[in-house]
Specification:
- The structure is a single chain.
- Helices cover about 40% and strands about 15% of the residues.
- The protein is an alpha/beta fold.
- The strands form four sheets. The chain has a seven-stranded mixed sheet, with helices on both faces. The chain has a four-stranded mixed sheet with strand order 11-8-9-14, covered by helices on one side. It has a three-stranded antiparallel sheet with strand order 1-2-3.
- It folds into two domains: about 110 residues, Up-down Bundle (Four Helix Bundle (Hemerythrin (Met), subunit A)), CATH 1.20.120; about 220 residues, Rossmann fold.
- It is built from eleven helices and 16 strands.
- Helix 1 packs antiparallel against helix 2, helix 2 runs antiparallel to helix 3 and helix 4 packs across helix 5.
- It is globular and about 60 Å long.
- The site of 5-S-methyl-1-O-phosphono-5-thio-D-ribulose has 18 residues, from helix 2 and strand 9.
């Protein structure tokens, strides 16, 4: 039995999901019974993380079908909630193309977990024994249907007895690192220490970081990676300090139709996420705030991309296209 409950599941015609806004103080679930409920849960970050959004998107189409709503309009409404996470569009389109969107959404849960276990096992070997690994945002079970991508790799290394420990960036402004990643690692018994995002450079300078591993919201065909804002700064720091910078993501996050990072839309989030700390204003009234939720790390700063189909290194364009082709072949129906 997993120590972390399922992020989201289809239950008797509603989508039951962990309300991630309430963690780590309390573990509570909410039921999205309509497409509108689900869109609000996605925009408000009750459910978040690219692979979890893929499954949520498919479940949203399932809700529309079961409520007799116009599915194409519902799909478009869901996709518009979070523009950077390509999995959301992928999950909606996959459910729309299926004769049975409810069954499709449920199949995607199992598939996501098995992809993450596979990429976790492939990536674990890249981490040194007793490695001190820094991660940003939450790319754990809560960001997926289960197990996690970047945290999946750390988890697989832990399960294999490689004794990783984790520096957890708090991840301003919404604190997915300190609230969610630290909560997951605590439940898994993996040693973790939370640091302010701005501490990463000095930790590296002191030789206290062996590798950085993050997830991704969108990977372009050339290997440029969009992930939580602050990821790019970490990649630059890694290059300066000669530390490997790994990205772990399922192939559903790789978008071969997107040529380069400059074509990835970057979501702007509400200013209040930055200007309020709880109920307290931390920015003077009248001062403008910019809140881009993601940034783009150029492929040249990425040491390797870890997927369920294999680990690839630069040049990414050829390598990612090859993995995507292999995936199509291996998922084609078997005859005879
Ligand atoms: O705004 P969020 O919390 O949805 O951002 C999530 C991230 O940036 C994750 O790193 C990414 O989605 C990968 S999750 C496996």
């Amino acid at each position: 039995m997993d120590r972390i409950p399922p992020t989201l599941e289809w239950r008797d015609g509603v989508v039951r999901l962990i309300d991630q806004r309430r963690l780590p103080a309390e573990l509570v679930f909410i039921d999205a019974a309509t497409v509108e409920d689900l869109c609000q849960a996605i925009s408000g970050l009750a459910v978040r993380g690219a692979p979890a959004l893929g499954v949520a998107g498919a479940m949203g189409v399932a809700l529309a079908v079961s409520l007799g709503q116009e599915v194409l309009a519902a799909g478009a409404q869901i996709v518009a909630t979070r523009p950077t996470a390509v999995n959301l569009k992928w999950g909606v389109e996959r459910a729309l193309a299926s004769p049975d969107p409810i069954a499709e959404a449920q199949a995607m849960v199992a598939e996501d977990i098995s992809c993450n276990r596979r990429l976790g096992a492939l990536g674990a070997g890249l981490l040194p024994e007793d490695g001190r690994i820094l991660t940003h945002c939450n790319a754990g079970s809560l960001a997926c249907a289960g197990y996690g991508t970047a945290i999946g790799v750390i988890r697989a290394a832990h399960e294999a007895g490689r004794r990783p420990s984790v520096w957890v960036d708090e991840t301003r402004p919404v604190l997915q690192g300190s609230r969610l990643t630290a909560w997951e690692l605590g439940r898994l018994g993996i040693p973790a220490t939370v640091v302010a995002d701005s501490a990463a450079g000095s930790l590296m300078a002191r030789g206290e970081v062996d590798a950085v591993i993050v997830g991704a919201d969108h990977i372009a065909a050339n290997g440029d990676v969009a992930n939580k804002v602050g990821t790019y700064s970490l990649a630059v720091l890694c290059r300066h300090h000669r530390i490997p910078f790994y990205v772990a993501a399922p192939m559903s996050t790789v978008d071969l139709d997107c040529p380069a990072g400059s074509s990835i839309p970057v979501e702007q989030r509400p200013a209040d996420e930055v200007s309020l700390s709880g109920d307290r204003r931390v920015v003077p009234d009248g001062i403008p705030v910019s809140n881009p939720a993601f940034d783009v790390t150029p492929a040249r700063l990425v040491s390797a991309i870890i997927t369920e189909e294999g680990v690839v290194r630069s040049p990414y364009k050829r390598a990612l296209a090859r993995l995507a082709k292999g995936r199509q072949t291996s998922s084609a129906p078997q005859h005879g």
